Amino acid sequence: MSTTTALPATTSVTHGQTRLPHWGVIRAQGADAAKFLHGQLTQDFSLLGLLQARLAAFCSPKGRMLASMIGFKLSADDLLLLCPVDVLPATLKRLSMFVMRAKCQLSDASAAFDLHGLAGASADALAASAGLDGATWAKADLPGGVAGSLVRLPRAGEGPQAVTRLLACVPAGQALPADVPALDSAAWAWLEVQSGVPMVSLPVVEAFVPQMLNYESVGGVNFKKGCYPGQEVVARSQFRGTLKRRTYRVATADALTVGQDVFHSGDAEQPCGTVVAAACLGGRCEALVSMQTSAAGGGQLTASGPTGPALTLLPLPYALLEDV
């Protein structure tokens, strides 16, 4: 199983902006909104600044991810959680069960906001105009007095050819302040895979603890904050060395689907992993696979079964965190 570096996507197809209809918005409002989310998610929302965003997971009591989301504050008592729309209803319902007497109102605000992904030169220009620094998960207001927020996402790819990505959240129907070319949705999906940061979608709900998706290595888990559902399991996985699965980036000749099993040549009967994100662009296909760390040490990986499409390991664009 050789290790190679994927050819970078060309600038012409990874420059521009696209609507993200597969994302939705949960809104948390009230004097206790930040405190409430702080007690439910893997990230620190109590100390979250207005110029910051956070990647976070919402877990079951067993530490399994029910959803992943990007959260930020519009004001001290008004927060937005952006997540894949297919997990939003169940996530909102479950979060609402725990509000009880907290001064926090949760709602599905997907119809009130439009979400856009920006990449490449378009993202660089808008970030510079907004004064958005180069830190991942930094947040800024849109420039020119236009309502809306920008979040700097992890870059896609490796080295100097890595592609800048932004997520823009604007009131529904409002145009972005810059005239930028359209970006094909397939190109955005490709960049999501290249970033190495998968989001939990319906086929893989409750399949992983956060570290199985490398969330502790990309800013998705705060080990110093207080308790949240599943916190003991997540902490134990980190500090007792019990984690035996990680997310890896792979190349393949065929398109894969989220939830598809991955097999290793050392065991034709039992899958060693699961596809958590996949995309194809310009005849090339890549995926993110959460799998047993032992399967990454050698041998052949295939999708769906021993005779399925072969998978080749590619480098991740970030280092895996060994200790916190």
Q: Describe the strand arrangement of the main beta sheet, using strand numbers.
A: 11-14-13-12-15-16
Question: CATH superfamily of one domain, called what?
Answer: Probable tRNA modification gtpase trme, domain 1
Please state the second-level CATH architecture of one domain: 2-Layer Sandwich
The count of β-strands is 16
| Share of residues in helices | 10-25%
Describe this structure in words.
- With 324 residues, the protein is an alpha+beta fold.
- Helix content is 14%, strand content 32%.
- The chain has a domain at 11-195: Gyrase A, domain 2 (2-Layer Sandwich), CATH 3.30.1360.120.
- It has a six-stranded antiparallel beta barrel with strand order 11-14-13-12-15-16. Strands 1-7-10-9-8 form a five-stranded antiparallel β-sheet.
- A hairpin with a 2-residue loop joins β13 (273-281) and β14 (284-292).
- The longest helix is centred in the middle third of the chain and has 11 residues, at 185-195.
- The radius of gyration is 19 Å and the shape is globular.
